[in-house]
Design goal:
The termini are far apart. Strand 2 and strand 3 form a beta hairpin. This protein is about 65% helix and about 5% strand. The protein is globular. It contains nine helices and three strands.
Length: about 250
């Protein structure tokens, strides 16, 4: 593994699991010291994370972990509802045996509530599953869109994993999509992918908003105890910006 890959892997893990909170600012020099690296690998890693939408690079100011907003949450799910079913339908016609085996392996991973090490492992398997399905379509542009959507959704999903227990349900839904792809049934694959995304939207909407409320309550409690020692929340307080004006999450075909 190159130095840039090592920094990228470690930094991405900390961003996805919100150990580096949204809005957090850091510099190349700071990361170079932390990861015992020169600034060049840090710069390469950060450019890669910027392309994935996980950080923002602002000239003369530094690097910032991208914010989490209700608008992004809605828009990413809306796009997911378009691209995931399309990818599954095409993959049912074009996937090779090796790709189907890889899908099956990823689909079987179940996270365990209370075991945080399993959360990130699940998110990586989830990302790999959906990207492999998209890659099996043999459409590079579609695969890039799917990869971008699921990479950006990882942080939203992580916030809710500790307060839900849908692991077995998700395994069943993932497996049903792969079964349809293996059966070479495009319409069934599309239908099962649509159902999975719709269920994901329903689950994650309530879970993510619950996670938001829990985090804000923790911050308020800490402030009451010591107004000067209020901890940084898991996401910026402007998460709720224009909340009332946001369109509701829509379920079903677009």
């Amino acid at each position: 593994m190159t130095a840039a890959s090592r920094v990228y892997t470690q930094l991405k893990s900390e961003i996805v699991t919100c150990r580096l909170a949204p809005g957090k600012c850091f510099s190349e020099m700071e990361l170079a010291r932390r990861f015992d690296s020169s600034r060049t690998p840090v710069r390469e890693a950060c450019r890669r994370l910027e392309n994935e939408g996980l950080i923002e690079i602002i000239p003369f100011r530094g690097y910032f972990v991208s914010a989490l907003t209700v608008g992004d949450f809605h828009n990413l799910h809306e796009l997911q509802l378009v691209v995931d079913p399309a990818a599954a339908a095409i993959a049912a016609q074009r996937a090779n045996p090796g790709e189907i085996m890889a899908m099956e392996a990823c689909a079987q991973y179940e996270y365990q509530v209370g075991k945080r090490e399993s959360y990130y492992e699940f998110l990586q398997n989830n990302l790999k599953l959906h990207v492999t399905i998209a890659q099996a379509s043999c459409n590079d542009h579609l695969a890039k869109v799917v990869s971008s959507v699921h990479t950006r959704l990882m942080r939203f999903f992580y916030l809710g994993l500790s307060i839900d227990s849908y692991g077995a349900v998700i395994v069943t839904e993932h497996s049903s999509i792969v079964e349809a792809i293996r059966a070479r049934d495009p319409e069934l694959a599309r239908k099962r992918a649509e159902e999975h995304v719709s269920n994901t939207i329903k689950r994650s909407s309530s879970i993510f908003l619950a996670a938001t409320e829990i985090t804000l309550n923790e911050a308020e409690s800490a402030e009451r105890l010591d107004p000067k020692a209020r901890p940084a929340p898991a996401f910026e307080l402007h998460f709720g910006e224009k909340l009332a004006a946001q369109r509701p999450l829509k379920i079903g075909k677009l």
